[in-house]
Design a protein that fits this description.
- The structure is a single chain.
- Strands 11, 12, 13, 14, 15, 16, 17, 18 and 19 form a 9-stranded mixed β-sheet that branches. The chain has an 8-stranded antiparallel β-sheet with strand order 5-4-3-9-8-7-6-10, sandwiched between helices.
- A hairpin with an 8-residue loop joins strand 16 and strand 17.
- The relative contact order is 0.13.
- It has one domain.
- It is an alpha+beta fold and 357 residues long.
- 20% of the residues lie in helices and 27% in strands.
- One of its GO terms (cellular component) is lysosome.
- Its main location: other.
- InterPro entries: DNase_II (IPR004947).
Length: 357
C-alpha cells in the first residue's frame, strides 16, 4: 500500500470514527450540558401566598451521578434547565436535517391548543434517537414542548401545579421494545420524523407518526428495559380496553408490593385508597419539600408511586395516569426501577397518605 493510499484510508477511517462518536452523543443532559444515564425532575407548584418569591418554575433534580434531590440552579423556562439542555439536541438535529436521527413528540394537550384529546392516551413525552442510542423523556406537562421549529419554551399553564418527568438514555437495541409499549399507550403525536432506515426494526412508531396504525392493540403490555449504562427498568402500558385502575389492578400485584401513589387529586375525581387485593394502593395526600415546606396533592399534577416503607420490594414508578375513575378509560403507562437512591429520594417526599376505610 502506498503512503498516499494509506493516508487516504486512515483519513476515511478517522472520519467514520468521528461520525460514530458524534452519533453516540444523544443522551439525557444535566444543567451543565453533560451526558447522564438518566435524570428525574420534580417541578414545584407555584406558592399561592403573596409573600412567596417562588415563580412556579423551580424544580428538584436527581440524576445518575447524584445521591439525593438538589434544588435546580436554573428555572424551568430557560434553555439552561435540564429540559432545555436535553431538548437542544432535538433542535440541532432538526436544524441539520439529519436523516440518521429520528424524533417523536406526543401530548394529549398539544401546544397552543385549549383542547385535550380523549381519543388518544393520557400520555406526554418525547423520544430522540439514532441507530446508536437516544433518550426517552416521559413527563406530565400539558402543552409541552413546542414543535422543533419554535425552539425551547415552557408553557405558562405548567407553572401552577407540580409536574414531574424522567429521562432515560437507551441504546438503540432497546427501541424495539419501546416501540411496542408506545403502540399500547396510543400517544397523540404532534411532531415526528422517522427516516426509513428505522422502519424495519420499528414497526409501530412510523404508523403512530402518520396516524395510520392498523396493528391490533392489546389491553396491556409489559417490557423490561435497560439504560445505556445498565440501569434496569420495567414499563407497564395499558390501552383504553384495560378498564381498571392500573395501580391496584396490575402494577401493585405484579410488583408484589403495597404502593403509595401520588397523582393529581382533583375534587370528586379521585379513587379512594384500595385494600381489596393482596397488595394495597394508598393515596399520598401531601408532599414534603423540607421541614417547613410542603404542598397538597390537589396542587400536584405529577404521577408517581413508590413501595410502602418497610416492604421488601422497593420500587419507584413515574408515568402518565392518575388514580381517577375516568383514567380507567384512558391509555398510558409507567416506567419503574428498583434503584435505591431514587427510592430513598421519593420516600423522603411523603408527608402523609390516606389509609383504607
Amino acid at each position: 500500500m502506498t503512503a498516499s493510499l494509506l493516508s487516504t484510508t486512515l483519513a476515511l477511517l478517522l472520519l467514520r470514527l468521528l461520525g460514530v462518536l458524534e452519533a453516540t452523543t444523544i443522551s439525557c443532559r444535566n444543567e451543565e450540558g453533560e451526558a447522564v444515564d438518566w435524570f428525574i425532575f420534580y417541578k414545584l407548584p407555584k406558592r399561592q401566598d403573596k409573600e412567596s418569591r417562588e415563580t412556579g418554575l423551580e424544580y428538584l433534580y436527581l440524576d445518575s451521578t447524584t445521591r439525593s434531590w438538589r434544588r435546580s440552579k436554573q428555572l424551568m423556562n430557560t434553555t439552561k434547565s435540564v429540559l432545555g439542555r436535553t431538548l437542544q439536541q432535538l433542535y440541532e438535529a432538526y436544524g441539520s436535517k439529519n436523516n440518521n436521527t429520528a424524533h417523536l413528540i406526543y401530548n394529549d394537550g398539544v401546544p397552543n391548543s385549549v383542547n385535550y384529546s380523549r381519543k388518544y392516551g393520557h400520555t406526554k413525552g418525547l423520544l430522540l434517537w439514532n441507530r446508536v442510542q437516544g433518550f426517552w423523556l416521559i413527563h406530565s406537562i400539558p402543552r409541552f414542548p413546542p414543535i422543533p421549529e419554535e425552539g425551547y419554551d415552557y408553557p405558562p399553564t405548567g407553572r401552577r401545579n407540580g409536574q414531574i418527568g424522567i429521562c432515560v438514555t437507551f441504546k438503540y437495541n432497546q427501541y424495539e421494545a419501546i416501540d411496542s409499549q408506545l403502540l399500547v399507550c396510543n400517544p397523540n403525536v404532534y411532531s415526528c420524523s422517522i427516516p426509513t432506515i428505522f422502519h424495519q426494526e420499528l414497526v409501530h412508531m412510523p404508523q403512530l407518526c402518520t396516524r395510520s396504525s392498523a396493528s391490533e392493540i392489546p389491553g396491556q403490555h409489559f417490557a423490561t428495559l435497560q439504560s445505556a449504562q445498565g440501569q434496569n427498568f420495567v414499563h407497564f402500558a395499558k390501552s383504553d380496553s384495560f378498564l381498571d385502575d392500573i395501580f391496584a389492578a396490575w402494577m401493585a400485584q405484579w410488583l408484589k408490593t403495597h404502593l403509595l401513589t401520588e397523582t393529581w387529586q382533583r375534587k370528586r375525581q379521585e379513587l379512594p385508597s384500595n385494600c381489596s387485593l393482596p397488595y394495597h394502593v394508598y393515596n399520598i395526600k401531601a408532599i414534603k419539600i423540607s421541614r417547613q415546606s410542603y404542598f397538597s396533592s390537589h396542587l400536584d399534577h405529577a404521577k408517581w408511586c413508590i413501595s410502602q416503607k418497610g416492604t421488601k420490594n422497593r420500587w419507584t414508578c413515574i408515568g402518565d395516569l392518575n388514580r381517577s375513575p375516568y383514567q380507567a378509560f384512558r391509555s398510558g403507562g409507567f416506567i419503574c426501577t428498583q434503584n435505591q437512591l431514587i427510592y430513598q429520594a421519593f420516600q423522603g417526599l411523603v408527608l402523609y397518605y390516606e389509609k383504607c376505610n
